[in-house]
Structure formats: C-alpha cells, structure tokens
Known about the structure:
five-stranded antiparallel β-sheet
Amino acid sequence: MNLRTIKPVPAAILASSLALAALLTGACSAAFLDSADVSRAKDTVPPTVSISTPGEGSSCANVVEVTGVTADLASPSGGAGKVVSITYSVPGSAVSGTVTPGSGGSFSFQFETVTLGSSFLLTVTARDWNGNEGAASVNLRKTEGNEVPSFAAAASNKSVTLTWDPVPDTESYTLYYSSNGALPSETVGTVLANVRSPYKLACENGKLYTFRLKANAKEGWSDSESDFVRSIPLSEMTLLPRTYPKRGKIRLEWNSIEATDEFTVFRRVGETGSFTEYRTTTGTAFTDTGVQNGPCYYYSVRPSAHSGVLSRPSGTVTDGFNPSPSVELSSALTREKVEGVFASGKWLYGSSYENGLKVFDASDPRNPVLAASVAPPGGCVYQVLVEGNYAYTASGADGLVIYDVSNPAAPSLAGSYSAGIERGCSLAIAGSYVLLTDFSIESVTPSTMAYDCALSVINVSDPSAPTLEARYTIDSGAPVAASEISGLTYMARIAVAGNYAYIAEYQRGLRIVEWTYGGSPADGAGLVATVQANPASPLSSQTSGVALYGNYAYAASYDYGLMVVDVADPTAPVIVSSDTSSGRVSDVCVENGWLYASNIEAGVQLYRLDDPSAPELQRTMTGEYFWRISTGANFAFAYGGLSYMGTVGIYAADLNLPLFVRELSEIPSKGHALDVSAEGSRLCVADGGAGLRVFDCSDPAAPSESSSVLLSGYSAFQVRQQGGYAFVLWEDTADASPLMSFGIYDLSNPAAPATVSVMQYLSYVRDFAVSGDYLYMSNLYNGIEIYDISNPANPTLAKSVDAPPTIYGITVAGNYALVADNVLGASVYDISSPLQTYLVSTVTMTDLMYLFADGNQLYGASTIKGLFVADIAEPEFPGTATNYPFDPDPMIPAHAGEVGKDIKGSGNYAYALTRGNTLLDSTQHYLTVLDVNRPGSSQKIARIKLSLLQAPVLDYGIDLSGPLLFESAGSKVSVYSLRP
C-alpha cells in the first residue's frame, strides 16, 4: 500500500461508518440498513439559509420580526436531507434563540433590540440531520429615538397621509401631532388612539405639522416610538408664483405660508421640457438674473423641506426694455478720443480728427471693445460712413479715403481721392457716388477768415480707383469768425435725396445743391436754395446736422432748436417750424419713422414722425453737451461731454423702448373678442359667443388656433391664464340676465383643454384675480367673494366681504387685495388670512375702474382722469396717488378721455388701453405708454393708435408677453410688436 495516497476521512463519513460498524457487530439479532440510512450517511452538504426580512442595512424598531426559508440539499451521491434545528444570535450580545422550522423550511421569529447598539449583525444558523450547518447574516441598524423607522408622512392638498410598516407584537398604535411646529406628546398637541396605516389626516394648507407614532406592544414586549416627522400640506395652487418681467431679469413672488420661509425654485426654459432645481431662497420673492430676451421661462416653487408638493408653473418673457431715460458713457470710446461714430450691425466705426479711424466690436453696446485702429496719412478722420464691405471717410487733406471692412477687425486701404481737396469734412453716399464737402481757407484777418466751400461728386463704383465726376462751389470767400473755423470743419453734415444734396453748413444754414454726374461741373445747377432759421442774422443761424424723411428736411439749428423744412420743391423750401423750446439741437438722424436728436442741453431726444410735418417729442434721455448722433442695433450713439471734466466721449442710449408699436397680425373674431390673456407663446381669447379660443403665437406674424371651448348658453367675457389654467368668466346670453358662470380649464394640452370645473348661476361679477389657493371676485351685488380653489375641480365659496356696489377691478399684491372703487378709490384689503379678510386703507383715485400692481407700485385707470400711481410699500399706510392725465378732451377740459377695460404693466412701463376722447374719435383705440420707473416723475412716452372699435364700449382688453402686445377689439384680436 502506498501510504501517501491515503486521504483523510470526512467527519460525517467517519461518523456514519462507525455507526454502520456498530450495527454490523451489534447484538445477535442483526439489523439491516435501508436506503435512507445509506443516503444520510452520504449527506455532506450543509443546508441553505435565506433571510427574507428585514433587508440588508434595514433600520429596526424595538421589536424585529425575521422571516426566511431553509433547505437541505442532498450531496451528489446521497439523498434528500432534513433541517432539524434553527438558531439565531447577535454576536457580542445576549440576544439568541431557537426556532422551530415550519413547513417547506420557512421560519419566522421576533427579538428585541432594546439592549443593542446602533448597528449589529444578526446570524441565522440551520443544522441538518447529519450535523451539517449552514448560516446567513444580515447587518441591521437602530436609530436612537426612532424605533418605528418606517413611519413617513406624505403631504397633499389639505391633508397628510401617514404610513408605516407593522411593528411585531403590537396591540395598537397611537398618533401624536401638532400644527404649529411644537413637538407633540401626551400633553402637547393632539393625541389619536387606535390609528391604522395608512392614515389620512385632514390639515390646513401651509402649516407645519409634526407627528410621532407609538407602537403599543403586547405584554412582555417593549413599546416602540418613532422619531418626529414633519410635513407641510399644500395644494398645487398654494405657492403658485406670480411673474413680473423686468429688463434682463424676471421677478417671482409667491404667497407666504406659516410653516417656513425657505423655498426652492424650479425652472424650465421654453414651452416644453422638465423642471430642474434652480435656486434655494429665503422669503417669498426671487429675482432671476440668468435670463435672456426671447425664451419663455417657467417657474415652480415648493418648501425646501417637509413637502414634495411642487406648485403649478407660472411663465413669462423678459420685457427687454430700458429701465431709465438716460444715456451711459462708454469708457472704452472715451479712452480712444472718438468724436463721431457710425453704427453698422454690431460694429461701431469711430472718426477722430486726432486719431483717425477706430473700429469697435459693440456686441455689448454699453462696453464696446476696440478691434482696430487705422490712421490715414494726414492722421485725421472727420466723418465715416459704411455701406456694404467698405468704409468711406472724410479725411481732411487726404480727401476721400476708402477702406475694405469685409473683416471689420482688420480694415485695409482700398482707395482714395484727394486732388483739389484741401479739407474733406463731411460726406454722403448715393448709390455708386460719394458726395464730399471740403473747405479751403482763402484769407485770414485777426477777427475773421474767408473760406471756400465746395461739393465733390466722386464715382466709387470701383473703390480701388475713385474718380471725380463733378465739383460745385457753394461759397466763395464766405466770411466766418476766426474762432468758428473748427465748427466748419467737423460739424457740417450732408443728406441726399435724388439729385439734391442738403448740406448743413454751420453759420450759413441749410444749403440745397442740385448735383449731377457724368459730365462737367457746368452740367449741374449747383446751389439752388438756402434755409436759415434767422435770415435777419445769417451768421447766427448755425446749422450743424440734417436728416430727410419724405418731403421734409430736419435741420439741427442749434440756438433755434429743431427746424422742420418742407422740401417737396427743393428749389423753394419752406420752413414749417423752428422750435426753440426743444433746446440746442446739434445733430439729427432718422430711422424707421423716428427722429433722433442730440441736444447739448437735454441729451438724446426721440421724436415720432407719424405726421412728418410736426415731429412729436416722445422721450428725452438725459445727458449734457451731446454733439453728434448715429443709430444702430437699437442704440443711439451720441458724442459729447465736457472735456475739462474728463467726460468727453461716446454715450450709448438704449432705444429698445416700448415706443415702436407695429401690428404683426390680426386674428378675426368668430364671436366678439372681449378679452385676451397671454403666457409665453400661448394666447387665450374670450371671444364672446365663440367661447374660449386658444392660439399658438410662437410665430406672432401668423398665430394658429389650437382649440376652443364653448359653454352652452354663455358668452366668454373675461379670461386669465395662471399656473397652466385658463380662468374664464362667462356671461349668460339671455337679454338683461345678471347671471354668470365661471370655468377653470387645464391647458396642459393646448390642443385639447380639459374642463376642470364650472360654477354656474353667479350674480354679476365685474372682475376677478387668482392668488394661491383662492379666487377673489368683485361682485356688483355681493361685494368681494372669496372662493377656495385649492382643489380646482371643486371650487367652494369660503367667504363674502361687504363692499359697495361701485367696485370694479380687482388685483392682488402679496398679502393684499386691491379693489377699484369708482367712488372711494383703491380699497386695500388684508388677505394674509383669506377667511379673515378685512379693509385696511383706501387710496384716493377719482373715477377708478381698473388696477394693476407691480412690487410697491399701484397703477389705477380712471374713466376721466387718466392714470394714477401710488406707493403701496406699506399698504396699510399708502402714499398719496399722483395723477397723470391722458390727452384731455378739448370740449371738456376736466375730462381726460375714457380708459379701456385693461391696464397692464411690464418692467418699468404701464400700458393703458384708452379710447378717443371726442365724439369724432370715440371709436378709436389708443395705447398710452407711461414710464413708471420713477413714479414721482413718471411721464407719458407714447400715445399710439391701435384698432377701430365696433362700438364705443369699455369691455376690451390688452395683455403682454415679452415684446408682444395683444389687444381685443371686438371684431378681431391684434398682435403688436413693441420692439424697434
């Protein structure tokens, strides 16, 4: 025998063999082995153990129930085994025990964790019939003070649902709770016995509820108590934010709640997509500065802790409008000593008689960045114009110098013309020709200079080889004060229309020259007319700038202000007006039907040219000593300032103002369009008998109808959008019926609005507002009615507040409802606890009809007094209202003209829909725009004609969405752009 091949005998086999030997050598009555004994003797496989509950890492109560299953498998050569015992233990503790296996190998048992630490290992061991053992372990945790770790609270509208997993060997459960944040106990808060999971508790929205659960154990076991669990019940409406668009930002406000002042804001960019967590903030307001003009931004809000209820979303678009009537000095342009500028796209071309041509990247118009600097041989550039890929400069002794600016950051010399030109100082482009003025000094005395002024017509069809076509002498030997020669060189300007050039020749006034090309100088008639603001004193008729529009020339006449000249016949010009009250105008330009003037006393002035013969001053953007002006990219760039104060340079004046109203499209009414409401690109129209109509205005030039909703027997009268709902006030179509209905519609799918609820048989409602869980109605007969809409599917009347029958419009600002009273003025009600609403103050506003609130300012529209503005920073002690009349009726001096149904605001502007104030004008709608950035000095900046009305009624409205204004006008809805 080879002893190295002997293998050790396993213990189980050895034991079986010894048993077999005993049987063979036993008593004289021998026993025979059956197959079961043989299988058992061959079983070497330990049983398996699987723990079903609790799971790995679970937190435990004071009593833990463990469940699982065991199985004993046969070894390859043996038969089926059998589990004969199960034991459990927690190593390092006294916790242990024995379990009797159930049918199929299942097992369950309980044990207490009172004496155990924060984490422990439970091991379950199974032993089979042949002594083989198998085991399984699970790591468990125990949190001190939280003996029912499964206890949880889920908030919803006016309720909290409490759930927990059963605690083993428990007879009953007791719930302790409070609604004021206090820790509940047997003596604090409310105690509810014999509760079962799940348990739904009726609650009040916005309060902080604190819960604790006690598991009352059976005799012999320990009780278990949960930790404190907090929850804030809310509806989707409670924190629904109100959005206020501003310049480059959006402000959100939402109602305060008792439970917390810490909230998380969620944001979505665009009409579709998911909301993402955006900001956490303290208080009930947040200003989002991370926005751009164009997209619609949607916001939802929820408490930062203790509630998973996210509010319905509210959306808006930035207004994009300049917040103040001022101009801003560009330090970059100051440093470069640029006296004039021409804007082309995002590029600014600066001219300097000391530093030549400068090119700036004005992607940010308030902070241009120098991109290139080029000096012609003579070093000076008096004026620059750009057309196509070329910049044309009047460059003093260098005459006309042309640069290729196809790459503006790297100008290159293209060509020039200087023959016979002593000092080229201004130019204009007319097709393939450049008209260049130049001055030459003929004689000098101590007090005067004599000069010649000429106009050269230069062919630039080939910019690399300009050629002279004609030259006209305008003045020969003309005298000028020696001190004024610099004014001649860099202040004259040219405008061209047809074959006439209009030249602002400083002390000689406005000169009109007929010019031709393609022949000798004799082919042109030359000077045909001179216009002087004060012919009696020609040398005082300083004219330094000129612009053309239609049959009119507008001359900057300095001491004589803005001069308007009828040039329908250029050879016989007629001065229409010379407005010295407009201040000292030094330059003008015209773009898109607007006249822009630089004024050395007032700043930058904007004139509307609806009537070209009578420019109407709309806005003055304040500043001092502005000489030159050019427009581009919605900015006016004015040169000026005081050299001794170091403020000389180019100033940027933002022209992106709500003055440039133009109609983009019309939506024909199918009934009678009475009201509009816009949110993002979605427009809702209350279209009378045609009901609620929903439109997609993502292309405002071509709105498309998405859907409509009808209510039998009723006509859609008013509509508001908020939180993805359309709230619609319906009028009974029966003659003289005072009954109305109110519907709430879900617009989540604009193609198929879902009717959420309809309240019928309401008495006469004049206006309504939605704020959080409540709907506020001003009612002719019932005062202020407050409805609970926390569940929009089931609105319920919560309270009626006495108010006189003279109330009309209603709006909400924070914790206050503001009601327009035609007799008393603006009534302020405290709604911080809507069911205890009460009157706190009144702001005197005459014949008040409708209101709009934004932040601390309240705007009221009066039927006869125009616009009122009042400070409501302290609503219980509001400031005195300031009145800003609209255009008065000449027949009734005290009457300011009727205001339409709506007044709205966006950013720093208020928009009032008015109608004509004379009998002949009573069917004309107007949009009156006021700058309310500084209410104490608010000013009307535009009064713009909108639609003609079918009838002179008040029940029409407007609404705003970013750069768009929507107007209901009976037979149609008009869509207007407010941007340049």
